[in-house]
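Students often ask why inverse folding is considered easier than folding. One informal answer: many sequences map to the same fold, so there is more than one right answer. In these notes we will look at a single instance of the problem. The structure comes first.
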């Protein structure tokens, strides 16, 4: 019986490999990977993460949950495939492209002014006293800033630095307005800015440098 701790050895490698340095040779965009219920599956996982953040199971419930979670992990472990073919991060029809490690966001517009999205930090993202953890705010900025940079320079970028100014509390379970944009492009460097608002109130600002990867660059 699996202990639920998946290892790379258990990940199925698919022969055709689009990896050419960086993240992937071509941006994988799909609405089909993982099947029609992948969104519901992701949402159940997010609900699990939210519940676990606040859970205090009595011992008999913990016993039962451990058994059920071990069975779920064993089942999931058997479905693992490699990074390049996994649905997570490619499902543009789902919040945060189906990547449950990101705070769920929905991109509402991409235009010459940058990327506009609605992001909702959930119970899982709690820092303290109903506010989002600063690290999760940075995660949202990294992904949405990387998106704006990629659009501006038409290529895959990696983050060289990213700073966040936390201007006021970022609330949980509230749809927030996020905006990221390329402020200046200089060769391979994209100086990128961002902001997250709760209505009119500025929650946080980002100042980051993303660098376009050279062909084949890791
Ligand atoms: C559509 C889907 C969108 C999805 C978006 C997802 C975004 C997620 C992004 C990430 O999270 S990436 C993961 C976190 N980042 C990393 O792990 C990066 C680790 N660092 C590196 O790999 C390299 O340092 C890096 C690729 C960033 C740069 O190395 P390079 O060898 O390609 O560039 P180089 O060091 O020659 O620097 C190029 C220019 O940038 C400048 N530079 C590099 N790092 C800098 C820095 N930290 N601060 C200021 N300037 C910097 C450098 O001085 C130089 O300036 P000049 O061209 O003017 O000479």
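Output (designed amino acids):
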């Amino acid at each position: 019986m699996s202990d639920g701790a998946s290892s790379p050895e258990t990940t199925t490698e698919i022969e055709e490999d689009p990896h050419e340095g960086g993240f992937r040779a071509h941006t994988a965009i799909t609405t089909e990977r993982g099947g029609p219920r992948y969104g519901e599956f992701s949402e159940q996982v997010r609900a699990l993460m939210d519940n676990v953040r606040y859970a205090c199971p009595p011992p008999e419930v913990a016993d039962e949950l451990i058994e059920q979670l071990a069975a779920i992990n064993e089942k999931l472990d058997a479905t693992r495939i490699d990074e390049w073919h996994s649905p997570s991060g490619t499902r543009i029809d789902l919040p945060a492209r189906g990547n449950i490690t990101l705070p769920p966001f929905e991109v509402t517009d991409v235009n010459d002014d940058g990327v506009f999205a609605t992001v909702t930090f959930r119970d899982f993202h709690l820092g303290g006293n109903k506010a989002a953890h600063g690290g999760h705010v940075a995660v949202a900025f990294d992904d949405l800033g990387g998106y704006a940079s990629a659009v501006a320079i038409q290529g895959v970028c990696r983050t060289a630095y990213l700073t966040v100014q936390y201007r006021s509390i970022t609330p949980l379970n509230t749809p927030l307005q996020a905006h990221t944009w390329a402020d200046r492009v200089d060769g391979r460097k994209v100086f990128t800015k961002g902001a997250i608002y709760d209505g009119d109130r500025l929650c946080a600002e980002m100042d980051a440098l993303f660098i376009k990867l050279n062909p084949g660059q890791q």
